[in-house]
Design brief:
Blueprint (H helix, E strand, L loop, with lengths): L2 H10 L6 H7 L2 H11 L1 H5 L18 E7 L13 H5 L7 H4 L23 E4 L4 E4 L3 H5 L4 E8 L5 H10 L9 H9 L9 E5 L25 E3 L17 H22 L2 H24 L6 H7 L9 H13 L4 E6 L8 H25 L6 E6 L3 E2 L16 E2 L3 E6 L7 E3 L1 E2 L6 E3 L2 E2 H11 L9 E3 L2 E3 L15
Parallel strand pairs: 1-7, 1-8, 4-12, 4-15, 5-6, 5-7
Antiparallel strand pairs: 2-3, 4-11, 8-11, 9-10, 13-14, 16-17
C-alpha cells in the first residue's frame, strides 16, 4: 500500500474513534509510510506529491495567483456600467427592484435609498469591446486577456463570513482554505518552497485579515499557507538564532528527527511526520526564501512594467512581482491580499486611490506571465468578497457618495489557465441590483477553477468527524462557457 492509498484508506475507515486511533491499531508500518511520503523530497530529491495519484482529467493549469481585494470593490464604478443610474441619480430605488431583500445594519434604517450613478467614465476596450472604467487604464489594455464575470453572487452580506466563504467554501471558520486543498490534492512541484504562499500589502487599513483565511483547517498542517513579509525576516522564525551556525542547525535537526521518529513508532500519529517535514522545509527555505525575495536580479524593465512601487517591499506592486517569481518556481497557490476597498462613504476618492495602488501591477502581472509563457498554465483571479449597492449609503451629492455591501451581484475577472480571454460573462439588471442572466455562485467559481487544475470538485474530499468535506461543500457547477 503506498502513501496515497494509505491516506485514502484512512479517510474511508468507518469508526467512532479518531484517525490517530486507527493508525495506532494498524501496526508499526503505517506511520513509517506517512513519514516516508512527507520526507520524499529529502530522500530522493523529487517533489512531495498530493493525495491524488493522477489528475481526474487533463489539466489546463498548474497553479493559481489570487489577487484578493479585501473589502468589496464597487463593480458599478469599475466593470458594470449602468447609465440608468446616472439618468436617475438621486431617485429612490424602486421597491420592485429591491424586492424586500435584506440589507446590512448600516443602511437598513435609512429613510430612503437614493440611486447613485458612477462619476467615472466607461469606455470599450480591445477587440472584445469590454466596458471598463477610466479608473483602470492599465487593466483596460489587457481586456482581451480577461474573462470578466459580471454576475457573481454570494450568500454572505458581512465581511468576515463573505471573505471566509471565498477562501474556504464555507461561511463558518475552520474549513481548509483553497490553497490548502490544492496542496493536499496536487502536492508541490518545488522542494524548497511551500506549496502555498501568502503576500499581504503592508500598512493598509481596512477589514482585518485572519491567519485562518490561509489555514489548513482539518487537513494536515503541512498544507497551511506560509505568509511572506516585507523586511529583514520574510518568514518568521526561519533564521538561526545568534551564534548558531548552519552546520549546528543541521545537527540539531538530525537529532530532533531521530527523537520524533521514536515518538512516531510509539504513537503512530501522522502529524508527527508533518512536523518533521516542516522542520526540513524550514531548513531548505533558509536559502530559497532570500533568493526569491531578492529583486536585485530583476531588470529595469520589470520596474517599468509593474511601476515604481515595485521597488518598495510590501507594496501591492512588489508583491505582484514576487508572485511572478514564485510562479516561475512552481509554487502551487499564491495568495495576495490588498485591504481598503470598503468604501461606505467618500467612495470616489477612496476607490481612486485603491485603483492607483493596484491597477498597473495587476495588469503587469498578467502581461509578464504571458510574455514568459506562464499565463497558459497559471490562473490569475482578481476580486473581493462581494459588491456594492447601487444606492448611496449616507449623504449623496453630485460628486460624492458611499455604497453599502451588496451580495446580490458583483464583478471579478479571471485570466489564464484555460479561461476564455476577451469574454464578459453574465448580466445584471439595468439598475445593477440583481443578476439578470447567467449567475455564478461562489462554489461555481471554485468548481470551475478546480476543473482547470485537473480536479473534479466532488472527488477531492477529506473525511472529518464522520463527514466527507470538500471545497465546494454540497454545491458547485462547472461554468463551461468560461473555459476553453
Amino acid at each position: 500500500m503506498n502513501t496515497n492509498q494509505l491516506d485514502a484508506h484512512c479517510c474511508r475507515f468507518e469508526t467512532h474513534g479518531s484517525r490517530r486511533e486507527f493508525l495506532a491499531r494498524s501496526g508499526m508500518g503505517l506511520g513509517a509510510m506517512a513519514l516516508g511520503n512527507l520526507l520524499n523530497a529529502d530522500a530522493s530529491g523529487t517533489s512531495q506529491t498530493g493525495i491524488m495519484e493522477q489528475s481526474h482529467h487533463v489539466p489546463k493549469a498548474k497553479r493559481v495567483i489570487y489577487l484578493f481585494m479585501s473589502g468589496g470593490p464597487s463593480q458599478l464604478d469599475l466593470f458594470d456600467y449602468k447609465p440608468l443610474l446616472n439618468e436617475r441619480h438621486g431617485e429612490d430605488l424602486p421597491d420592485s427592484v429591491r424586492m424586500g431583500q435584506r440589507l446590512t445594519g448600516m443602511s437598513a434604517n435609512q429613510a430612503s435609498f437614493p440611486m447613485a450613478g458612477s462619476v467615472f467614465k466607461f469606455s470599450r476596450h480591445g477587440q472584445s469591446g469590454a466596458e471598463i472604467s477610466e479608473l483602470l487604464p492599465h487593466t483596460s489594455k489587457i481586456a482581451d486577456d480577461l474573462c470578466i464575470m459580471r454576475s457573481l453572487h454570494t450568500e454572505a452580506i458581512n465581511h468576515d463570513p463573505a471573505i471566509t466563504f471565498f477562501q474556504t467554501g464555507s461561511q463558518l471558520a475552520g474549513r481548509p482554505s483553497m490553497g490548502s486543498w490544492l496542496s493536499y490534492g496536487l502536492g508541490s512541484e518545488n522542494d524548497n518552497l511551500p506549496a502555498f504562499c501568502v503576500l499581504i500589502t503592508r500598512n493598509k487599513g481596512g477589514q482585518p485579515l485572519y491567519s485562518r483565511l490561509w489555514g489548513n483547517g482539518f487537513l494536515p498542517s503541512v498544507h497551511q499557507g506560509v505568509p511572506f513579509r516585507a523586511g529583514k525576516d520574510p518568514v518568521l522564525y526561519l533564521e538561526n538564532p545568534a551564534g548558531i551556525t548552519r552546520q549546528e542547525r543541521r545537527a540539531m535537526l538530525d537529532q530532533l528527527r531521530r527523537w520524533n521518529e521514536i515518538q512516531m513508532e510509539t504513537e503512530k500519529d501522522p502529524e508527527i511526520a508533518t512536523r518533521i517535514a516542516q522542520y526540513e522545509m524550514a531548513y531548505r527555505m533558509q536559502t530559497s526564501v532570500p533568493e526569491v525575495m531578492d529583486l536585485g536580479d530583476e531588470p529595469e524593465s520589470s520596474f517599468e512594467l509593474y511601476g515604481e512601487d515595485a521597488r518598495k517591499p510590501g507594496t501591492f506592486a512588489a508583491n505582484c512581482l514576487l508572485a511572478r517569481r514564485l510562479a516561475e518556481r512552481d509554487v502551487r497557490f499564491i495568495q495576495l491580499f490588498h485591504q481598503g476597498w470598503d468604501q461606505h462613504g467618500g467612495l470616489p476618492g477612496g476607490i481612486k486611490n485603491q485603483c492607483k495602488e493596484t491597477d498597473q501591477a495587476s495588469a503587469a502581472l498578467v502581461t509578464d506571465l504571458k510574455q514568459r509563457g506562464l499565463l497558459d498554465d497559471t490562473i490569475v483571479i482578481w476580486g473581493g468578497e462581494f459588491g456594492r449597492t447601487n444606492y448611496s449609503q449616507g449623504k449623496l451629492s453630485a460628486t460624492d457618495y458611499g455604497r453599502d455591501h451588496h451580495p446580490r451581484c458583483f464583478s471579478q475577472w479571471i485570466a489564464g489557465g484555460g479561461f476564455s480571454g476577451g469574454v464578459s460573462y453574465g448580466e445584471t439588471d439595468e439598475f445593477g441590483y440583481n443578476v439578470a442572466r447567467n449567475g455564478v455562485e461562489v462554489h461555481d467559481l471554485h468548481a470551475t477553477m478546480l476543473h482547470q487544475l485537473g480536479i473534479h470538485h466532488e472527488k477531492l474530499t477529506f473525511k472529518y468527524q464522520g463527514r466527507r468535506f470538500r471545497l465546494t461543500d454540497i454545491k458547485g457547477n462547472i461554468v463551461k462557457t468560461l473555459i476553453t
